[in-house]
Design brief:
The protein has 200 residues and is an alpha/beta fold. It has one domain (2-194). It has 3 helices and 9 strands. It has helices at 42-52, 125-145, 177-194; strands at residues 2-14, 21-32, 60-64, 72-75, 79-85, 113-119, 122-123, 157-162, 168-169. It has a 7-stranded mixed β-sheet. Helix 1 links the parallel strand 2 (21-32) and strand 3. Helix 2 runs parallel beside helix 3 (177-194).
Length: 200
């Protein structure tokens, strides 16, 4: 498992199976599972792991079959990004046929790109949504540049966190002040991840 704890809670927007959605979060847990993982209750599984670790307050939990010790990072002036990159099953977002789902209604986690990004500056609600889009665009660009046939995998997850107070940035797109830094940090982390052994 990889664990990030924050000295004070951060405002988050996430698609993770545990602690996803909008709100303040105190920690992020990335747990490694076996290839072929098919539990129908990933949120409950992650809640149990968090309890075992005695993690306090609301947090975010993600799953991957990638060795979480292979996390790759990127940073730029007030923005930090971390990624675990598994690409055994890359796919195009608008593929004609959807992959078979597991019992839980979601594709397996064997090939998963999970991204965590933290910004030192507060983002407005709209900018935070825009920042999630920016992360996804930067990830897809990195995969294209690395030669993978897909925009991601069916089970990718993302969490973008920012300062919960202070003046708010109105925009989080790739040409905005903080969005451009976010895009470059994520692109660097994912591209480095594609170069790690075993991602193909």
């Amino acid at each position: 498992m990889a664990l990030w704890r924050f000295g004070s809670p951060l405002l988050a927007l996430s698609s993770a199976p545990y602690g996803g959605g909008w709100g303040e979060r105190h920690w992020i847990l990335a747990a490694q599972v076996a290839h072929g993982y098919d539990r129908a209750d990933p949120a409950a599984h992650l809640a149990g792991l968090a309890s075992d670790l005695r993690l306090d307050g609301p947090g975010i939990g993600m799953l991957t079959a990638v060795d979480v010790r292979l996390v790759t990072t990127g940073s730029e002036d007030g923005v930090a990004a971390a990624a675990t990159v598994g690409l055994t099953h890359p796919s195009w977002a608008a593929a004609d046929a959807a992959p078979a789902a597991s019992a839980g209604g979601a594709p397996g986690v064997a090939g998963t790109v999970n991204i965590v990004a933290v910004l030192s500056r507060r983002l407005s609600g709209a900018a935070l949504v825009n920042a999630v889009m920016t992360v996804t665009e930067a990830k897809s660009q990195a995969l294209w540049e690395a030669g993978f046939a897909g925009t991601g995998t069916p089970s990718d997850a993302v969490a973008v966190l920012c300062a919960p107070s202070g003046p708010a940035e109105a925009y989080g797109g790739p040409r905005s002040r903080y969005g451009s830094r976010l895009a470059r940090a994520v692109h660097r982390a994912v591209l480095d991840g594609t170069r790690r052994a075993g991602t193909r």
